[in-house]
Amino acid sequence: MTKRFWLVLMLSLGAVALLGVVKFFQVQAMVAQAASFQPPPEAVTTIKARQEQWPTTLEAIGTVAAVHGVTVSADLPGVVETIAFDSGRTVTAGEVLVRLDSRQEQAQLAAAEAQRDLARLNLDRTRGLVEQGIVAVADSDRVVAEYKQAVARVGEIRATIERKQIKAPFAGVLGIRQVNLGQYMNAGNPVVPLQSLDPIYVNFSVPQQQAGALRVGGDVEVTADARQPEPLQGRVSALDSVVDPATRNVQVQATFRNPDARLRPGMFVQAHVHVGEAARVLTLPASAISYAPYGDSVFVVAQLEPPGGGRGYRGVRQQFVKLGPTRGDQVAVVSGLTAGDEVVTSGAFKLRNGAAVLVNNVVQPGNDPRPQPEDN
Asked: Could you tell me the strand order of the sheet in which 342-346 lies?
């Protein structure tokens, strides 16, 4: 009985030991398999970082202003007799816009001309009498003075009639008419805005620290609308002689050709002032950047080795970068990358350091320095 008991006990212990050894190797195999497990690759798009020549520019918000811009107004009071223009029309310098009623002045002019003619006759008659010694020289001087006064009176009335014809002081484009036929106008009442649009000014401010990089004649580009095909090219025409004590900015004025009236007075524009030589920078689409409070980064595609050894795979490593200026869809990378690095441009939000990726570049995100957004 005792032998039989010990035999059963030994067989049981052997079975338990065998089962433990089997389970130990099974757990070891599972641990090794888990260590070498790689999740399925994430689909991403990529681009190779490349160097480009970017001009060194200062950017500022500017306001368009006319070289010549006024609101044409009445010089003298009167009733509007004729309106000789249409709103929005282009006019030449000296073109008559409005005529005020001048019938009273015309009658005064006729009387003054008659008085002048009479004074002329008296002057001629007096000169003959002076030559004959019949009239004193003092009387002749009085007649001469009366004639000059009559001539001056005629000139004064003619000037009044001329001032009742409101004319364009310079060539330009008219705005919206602000008078009506038969309206009584006081001196100074507005008639119509008039703006000279070609050439045209763009005024903007730059911080005093950057003003030293500007010079008269320097190149400037402006864009008023993202849908414009090309920016307008102009030159710096003036720098203010003082710094604004409130903002510590310097006012800058640039002049642009504007033959198709793309710029209008009062418009806000984005100004890009070229300063210095062009710089070589690495460019990436803005969608490639992962922004974070602790630093901006990108994911670089490379051939990686699993931690436990084994077959290598195509994955990503997170690389922190220092960013420079932006231009359209592009952003400049100052440091952290080298030319030729393959960088993830879309799908970065679902990646982690060491993640496997599958590159599919059939559809790429925007990478245009001057994008043209479509209307929605």
From this structure: 313-320, 297-304, 342-346, 42-48, 357-359
Place of tokens 């195509």: 314
Q: Which domain holds residue 135?
A: 102-163
Asked if the structure places residue 258 within a domain, the reply is: yes
Find all residues with CB under 8 Å of 159, minimum gap 6, and list them: none
Give the count of domains, the chain: 3
The answer on 292 and 250 residing in a single domain is no
Instruction: Flag whether 242 is in a domain.
Output: yes
Q: Which two tokens stand for residue 60?
A: 């500022």
Burial class (CB in 10 A: 0-12, 13-18, 19+), 86: exposed
What are the pLDDT tens digits along the chain (376 aa)? 577 767 766 777 777 777 777 777 777 766 665 555 556 777 888 888 888 877 777 788 888 888 888 888 888 888 888 888 888 888 888 888 888 888 888 888 888 888 888 878 877 777 776 666 666 666 667 777 888 888 888 888 888 888 888 888 888 888 888 888 888 888 888 888 988 888 889 998 888 887 777 888 888 888 877 556 678 888 888 888 888 888 888 888 888 888 888 888 888 888 888 776 667 788 888 888 888 888 888 898 888 877 666 677 888 888 898 888 787 778 888 888 888 888 888 877 887 888 888 888 777 777 766 666 554 3
Yes or no: say if 208 and 249 are a contact pair by the CB < 8 Å rule.
Answer: yes
Does 85 map to a domain? no
Q: Write the CATH number for 345.
A: 2.40.420.20
* Tokens 């001539």 -> residue: 151
**How many Cβ atoms from other residues are within 10 Å of residue 151's Cβ?**
16
Claim to verify: residue 206 and residue 62 sit in the same structural domain: yes
